[in-house]
Amino acid sequence: MTHTVLVTGVSRHIGARVASVLAADPDISRVIGVDAVSDAGPDSVSDAGSDVASDGLSPPPDNRDDGTAGRIEYVRVDLRSPDIAQVIAAADIDTVVHMSLVSAPSRSTGRAAMKEHNVIGTMQLLGACQRSATVRRVVVRSTTAVYGSSPRDPAVFTEDLEPHDGPSHGYAKDAVEVEGYVRGFARRRPDVTVSLLRFANFLGPGVDSPLTRYFTQPVLPTVFGFDPRLQFVHEDDAVEVLRRMATEDHPGTYNVAGAGVLLLSQCVRRAGRLSLPLPSPAFRLLGTAVRRAGLVDYSPEQLRLMSHGRAVDTADLEAELGWKPKFSTGAAFDDFLRSRELRPLVGGAHL
Length: 351
Description:
- This protein is α/β, with parallel strands linked by helices.
- Helices cover about 35% and strands about 15% of the residues.
- It has a domain at about 5-205 and about 235-260 and about 310-325: NAD(P)-binding Rossmann-like Domain (Rossmann fold).
- A seven-stranded parallel beta sheet has the order 3-2-1-4-5-6-11, sandwiched between helices. Strands 7-10 form a two-stranded parallel ribbon.
- Helix 3 (about 110-130) links the parallel strand 4 and strand 5 (about 135-145).
- Helix 1 (about 15-25) packs across helix 6, helix 2 runs parallel beside helix 3 and helix 3 runs parallel beside helix 4.
- The N and C termini lie far apart (about 55 Å).
């Protein structure tokens, strides 16, 4: 039986949903939600001090009034500080769900703070878990971006394949470093069940990310001569996988994605958007310009994804859980479009 769960990153949508669904589980007596901010954007980082706030952390706006909010205890603590160890020790935490990896820097704090939050924060959290006598299960959210995007990639990545050109910057590089620390922790604490989940891009009604903002633009820039394969995971399926990993023992590394793939051209047609094919250098220049303007975050790894795409195999996850995602990649994308009520700019006949 799981007694006390700590969830990081609860000021963001997916983290809030995971905390809420765990709080609704009668076998879980306490859920402690941890973050550095009380009202963060979808991928923001706060550097406003590292002390545990005496007044706790306000419930995030994503936490719907489903009767579970009162069962979640919120604590404001910066993972980059040693204070997280005090929280784990004081509450006798036995399960940690680490959802706090940030995929894009905020304009106020920048890339340096993002890297510190992702890498140093994870190091501090794992160090606290290693010293804890009560922690028995650790679940870490990672990303399929660790495989990179390259013209030399295999058609489908399995968990044991190494990328030809691994990530060299940004969120993907942070995730690679985080995974290295997670594997080191698993070796040092073989008594702890460690689950590492590599998620495809989240989609769903409540997801706000660089990719969702890209698909809501009236004109979608694409790389001339490329039509990358994309995979998505619906937020409902992501939450269900995290719930299972937090309440059951499933050690190992698993890819998480909806079945099938969509070509970028198919996404453009389904959304009824206009595409603007650009030569690769022009696409990179545009990405730099709009990122500096704060319009859409075309990060370097996203630019590579829009050229070469990426697909992963999820057979290990489905065999381990005896479960398949409810939403395929295509169904997740369609549900995202419905939730945004996007009006097609171009009709199907014209496309």
